[in-house]
Specification:
By secondary structure, the chain is α/β, with parallel strands linked by helices. It has one domain: TIM Barrel (Alpha-Beta Barrel), CATH 3.20.20.70. 50% of the residues lie in helices and 16% in strands. It is built from 11 helices and 8 strands. It has an 8-stranded parallel β-barrel with strand order 1-2-3-4-5-6-7-8, surrounded by 7 helices. Helix 3 links the parallel strand 1 and strand 2. The protein is globular and about 50 Å long.
Length: 232
């Protein structure tokens, strides 16, 4: 977990490198992808997060820049099932994604069918060998005990990150969510906070709770807010 001192001393470069730009609005266009790629390069963001259809296009735009592309699987609620999720992951991997972000099957999780949840994660982990795997819980629909159990399933399957939300749910990340996930994940996986994070103070609090990556659809606003926070 970052110390208070480490968070307080963050530079704008470090802030940007911890941000994923989510380009997942239902009505986004290839022009939006182009703009996101340009901003990611300009500010040095960690990655842009896209549905499989846009990964190939972004791969061409970002080749050689050092910005990673994260392909989504099962957005927004993870209900699509194992075969469909494997197809989505395969599309993104073949198109050049360096990261895969899969949503757990909420129907299975809420029904207590934990073996099904784990089987999907394990299958995508195997497909994404050598790539970064993020497992999104969509915690606004889970009780604290369910968040902890889902996090354990993800970690046991070898997830690199456990992510709080997709940004499509009824609410987004909270400090409590991050604390729960970090307590379970420990040093075995990183925690990413997502959903409703638009101000640097929120990012600051998430980092202090144990997150190391933030996902937002407004990264430039977040970085500009950092400058205001730094000046106070």
């Amino acid at each position: 977990m970052p110390t208070r001192e480490a968070v307080a001393e963050m530079t704008v470069e470090a802030v940007a490198k911890a941000v994923d730009h989510m380009v997942l609005a239902p009505d986004h266009t290839f022009r939006d992808i182009e703009q996101a790629c340009a901003e990611a390069v300009e500010y040095g963001l960690a990655s842009i997060c896209l549905a499989p259809y846009g990964v190939s296009y972004a791969s061409r735009l970002l080749r050689g820049t050092g910005v990673s592309i994260c392909g989504t699987v099962g957005i927004p609620l993870g209900h699509s099932g194992l075969r469909a999720k494997c197809d989505e992951a395969g599309t993104s991997i073949e198109s050049g994604a360096g990261e895969i972000d899969m949503v757990i099957n909420l129907v299975a999780m809420k029904s207590g069918r934990y073996g099904d949840v784990q089987a999907e994660i394990a299958a995508i982990r195997k497909m994404a060998t050598g790539l970064v795997l993020k497992v999104t819980l969509e915690g606004c629909y889970l009780a604290d005990a369910e968040k902890a159990r889902a996090c354990r399933l993800a970690v046991d399957c070898g997830a690199d990150y456990v992510k709080t939300h997709t940004g499509f749910g009824r609410s987004g990340a909270t400090v409590r969510d991050v604390l729960i996930l970090k307590r379970i994940a420990g040093a075995a996986a990183e925690v990413e906070a997502a959903g409703g994070i638009t101000r640097f103070k929120q990012m600051h609090d998430m980092f202090h709770a144990g997150a190391t990556r933030i996902a937002t659809d407004a990264p430039v606003a977040l970085i500009r807010d950092f400058y205001k926070w730094e000046a106070e």
